[in-house]
Amino acid sequence: MEIKGAIIAMSEEARRSHAKLLVNIWDEKYVLHPSWWKGPYDISSVLRRVAAGADVLDVGCGTGRYLVPLHRNGFRAVGVDISREALVLLDPRYARVLSDVHQLPFSDRSFDAVTCYGLLGHLTGNGRKKAVGEFFRVLRDCGLAFVEVLGRRDLRRSQGVKFTADTLIRGGIQHHYFSPWELCELFQSTGFVMKALDEKVSHKQYKGAEHTRHRIVMVAEKP
Ligand SMILES: C[S@@+](CC[C@H](N)C(=O)[O-])C[C@H]1O[C@@H](n2cnc3c(N)ncnc32)[C@H](O)[C@@H]1O
């Protein structure tokens, strides 16, 4: 079949219903698996670089794996997540806001640090740029962004329906696997300056087979 003429852009209504569907998928994950994102955490890099009492925004906070220790270590920490079901699992004493990372409901220069663990890979290419632009906007001068994403050597890069070479759809959600260079480029093109970049590769046995976990952790500064 030949299709002639311009490709019509997705309507605003279709875009909204797609965004709503994604929220429903995240909500459903938290209802069915409330303990999925409750594993170990490491905030040592934040503790080394940010003074206690500083304003920290944890984007994609989920049920508070990082938000709670940030709060307990003396930061004025606020969590943001798109899933209401995640936020209701979080003790109300921790400040949290239901919001989309693409448009954060905070004024320019409100925070000394932004933390974002395991979220960027779930956004589209444009979404990732928008999100990093929002980090830049809400950070004060010399503010730091602490980010963790999955890297291309992660075993799960081969699991799911392939969308592009490094992007798969699994459980209705996009999973993008980064190269360190790509992550740097994303932040540098927004105006950030790279302060630290590290790759963490670990192996674990699961159902008799060895699985490789590849994480990229990065610290970037708004000059
Ligand atoms: C893989 S989980 C990580 C949760 C938490 N950071 C952790 O490491 O335990 C990704 C989180 O990002 C949230 N999320 C997904 N898309 C989002 C968006 N557009 N805006 C804000 N949060 C989003 C999900 O609801 C989920 O809680």
What does this molecule look like?
By secondary structure, the protein is an alpha/beta fold. The protein has a single domain (about 10-220), classed as Rossmann fold, CATH 3.40.50.150. It contains 6 helices and 10 strands; from the N terminus they run ααβαβαββαββββαββ. It has helices at about 10-30, 45-50, 65-70, 85-90, 125-140, 180-190, and strands at about 55-60, 75-80, 95-100, 110-115, 140-150, 160-165, 165-170, 175, 195-205, 210-220. The strands form 2 sheets. The protein has a 7-stranded mixed beta sheet. Strands 6-7-8 form a 3-stranded antiparallel beta sheet. The longest helix is centred in the first third of the chain and has 21 residues, at about 10-30.
Strand and helix layout:
Layout: H1 12-32, H2 44-49, E1 55-59, H3 67-72, E2 76-81, H4 84-88, E3 95-98, E4 111-117, H5 125-138, E5 139-150, E6 161-164, E7 167-170, E8 173-176, H6 180-188, E9 193-206, E10 209-221
The chain binds S-adenosylmethionine.
Tell me the overall shape.
Answer: globular
CATH architecture identity: 3-Layer(aba) Sandwich
Strand order of the largest sheet: 3-2-1-4-5-10-9
In DSSP terms (H or I, runs of 4 or more residues), the helix count works out at 6
Q: What top-tier CATH class fits best? A: Alpha Beta
Count of individual domains: 1
Q: By CATH's scheme, which homologous superfamily applies?
A: Vaccinia Virus protein VP39
- How far apart the termini lie comes to 53 Å
Poorly predicted sequence stretches spanning 5 or more consecutive residues: none
N-to-C order of helices and strands: HHEHEHEEHEEEEHEE
The unique ligands bound to this protein are: S-adenosylmethionine
Would you tell me the overall average pLDDT?
A: 93
The helix content, as a percent range, equals 25-40%
Structural class: alpha/beta
Query: How many β-strands, per DSSP?
Result: 10
Instruction: Characterize the largest beta sheet: strand count, sense, and whether it forms a barrel.
Output: 7 strands, mixed
Strand residues, percent: 25-35%
